[in-house]
Amino acid sequence: xxxxxxxxxxxxxxxxxxxxxSLVGFEIKKMLLNKITITMLILCMGFLFGFTMLRYLxxxxxxxxxxxxxxEINGRLLDDELIGEIVESxxxxxxxxxxxxxxxxxxxxxxMNKAVGNSFSNDDLEKLSEESFYKARADFLESMxxxxxxxxxxxxxxxxxxxGVKKPFVWETNFGxxxxxxxxMAIMALVAIILAGGLAGTFSAxxxxxxxxxxxxxxxGRHEIALAKILAGELFSVIVSLLILISVQLPHIIFNGxxxxxxxxxxxxxxxxxxFSAGTLLLILTGVYILGAMLVGxxxxxxxxxxxxxxxxxxxxxxxxVLDLFLSVPSRxxxxxxxxxxxxxxxxxxxxxxxxxxxxxxxxxxxxxxTAAIGYVxxxxxxxxxxxxxxxxxxxxRL
Length: 399
Description:
Layout: H1 2-32, H2 35-57, H3 61-72, H4 80-93, H5 106-116, H6 130-147, H7 152-163, H8 175-199, H9 201-208, H10 212-216, H11 222-256, H12 265-268, H13 278-307, H14 310-326, H15 334-340, E1 359-360, E2 365-366, H16 368-392, H17 394-397
Antiparallel strand pairs: 1-2
């Protein structure tokens, strides 16, 4: 008898799991059948892939010549020897700013200007050296720390990190890797808009089509339905973010392979003191990007659950995206400014320096990437819990 009861309980659990899986599959299918969202997704994927491919296919002979010339100095130290060659080339051209785009040193000069925060003048030619370049970069880092209002503890943290960065830098051609890094901010905004349209009806569509009572009357209760919708929405967010990411990054891999992936982070972001490679940077950005998409998905589903209105849910998220792209908060308002630059779009910006402000959690400091990743996970879980509790609450059932 005990065996029969055990088998019966096991059978019920198995049926419950199968039912939940069916619910998740049903919700994902509904999202994939949203013609407007899927059409927009396909068009965006096609445009991004085609536009990025076109950038390589229409490279002029001069551009190809520059890339080929840069390959000759790939892997060299940015030391007195290489800087001396740049100075001689600049003298022949009439100044650093006059070095032609066809020169193998053209992109290195642009990089050096970013690293020190301004353009080297012709007066700097005679005194430009390995020592003066790295000192100018260190001075610029210090001025940036002051402009961001860093505390002494934060400055000490970054100074320790900077002391671990190997100098002189090893110059690596990085056109592909730099382009891949620069894409994240734009595609995060694009993904947010697609998810706003795709997930706005996750909860509100039932009210719009008057099918909520019909769905609730099935064997699946509100608890299972809520969980299925939330899980399906997050899976949809991951799928959309990955498809868009692949569409825009694949051409770079096709044409450049993984050249520059082992370059130091300083070659890609001149004014950072992170000690990892360009490849690690791309992995970090990818992780933050996917978590950001999941957070946007959770926010959209929350509005869908609370407002029961698809247009309002999508509109609020799209407005937030536009606001995030153009809103500026002065750094003197430290807390507001720091929060503003931790949003999924802004934390992925392609500036020459990442936000150096840290978050002190008591025993360690967290950088902007670490804070964003941890914050997105915690906030996403809280939002999903809020959606679940709101959807299954007795008060909501009476609405």
